[in-house]
Amino acid sequence: MQAELLAGKGNARFDVRLIGYVPDKTIIVSIPPVHERKTKLFDGDNMAVRFLQGNDVHAFKTSIERVCTDPMPYMHLVFPSSIETARVRNSYRVNTSCPVSIQCNGNKEKHNAELIDISEDGAKIISDDILGNAGEKIKLEGRFSFAGIEEILILDAVIRNANNKPVNQHSYGIEFADIKQQDMMFLRGVIYEQIVKERGVP
């Protein structure tokens, strides 16, 4: 499971392991020792928790009820009132409208672009700038949201097809490469929420 501190904590993320739970009362998870974390944890801190089961992504918001150190570092979380679940097929592509910035071939210069559809495998983007040709590598950065949680994702990708026009917007089909597991979890949730909006899928 991945935990992320919210509001004023710099959105620090760290991995936790489920120890147990009491329905409607508390969830007990392990936490890394202090020297393995970038920030201290305190009772009352708000956080988001996400975890992956097969192709399902689950996410919920909670707060720390009690931080404990004996006999090992662990904490009690407030039992969530609801858990958001995403089931996404790898190839399912949804429409979106998300401003992103693109770095091409390792260059530091960033180009403004818009992501107009997305799947787990890739996306389609349009830009007023020429970004490159098929086979060239890019880095995409954008702000996405799932279950009320916002996340800045930085994703490596390869241009698979390019439509560089003499005028107006240029369009590109890109394929994601080597996405980290936590980013894939979040991306699946983003896609699922858009499916709900478009088709009312439960």
Q: Could you characterize what this model shows?
A:
The structure is a single chain. The longest helix has 19 residues, at 181-199. The chain is built from one helix and 14 strands. It starts with a strand and ends with a helix. The protein has two domains: 2-87, Roll (Pnp Oxidase, Chain A), CATH 2.30.110.10; 94-199, Thrombin, subunit H, CATH 2.40.10. The strands form two sheets. Strands 1, 2, 3, 4, 5, 6, 7 and 8 form an eight-stranded antiparallel β-sheet that branches. Strands 9-10-11-14-13-12 form a six-stranded antiparallel beta barrel. 26% of the residues are buried. 9% of the residues lie in helices and 52% in strands. It is mainly β and 202 residues long.
Can you count the helices?
1
According to CATH, the fold-level topology of the largest domain is: Thrombin, subunit H
Topology as H/E string? EEEEEEEEEEEEEEH
Q: Using the alpha-carbon principal axes, give the shape.
A: elongated
Percentage of residues in strands = over 45%
**How many beta-strand elements?**
14
Distance between the termini: 24 Å
| CATH architecture type of the largest domain | Beta Barrel
Instruction: Please compute the radius of gyration using only Cα atoms.
Output: 19 Å
Task: Write the SSE topology.
Layout: E1 2-5, E2 13-15, E3 18-22, E4 26-30, E5 46-53, E6 56-68, E7 74-78, E8 84-87, E9 94-104, E10 110-118, E11 122-127, E12 137-146, E13 149-163, E14 170-176, H1 181-199
Antiparallel strand pairs: 1-2, 1-5, 3-4, 4-7, 5-6, 6-7, 6-8, 9-10, 9-12, 10-11, 11-14, 12-13, 13-14
Question: Care to give the gist of this entry?
Answer:
This protein is mainly beta and about 200 residues long. Strands 1, 2, 3, 4, 5, 6, 7 and 8 form an eight-stranded antiparallel sheet that branches. Strands 9-10-11-14-13-12 form a six-stranded antiparallel barrel.
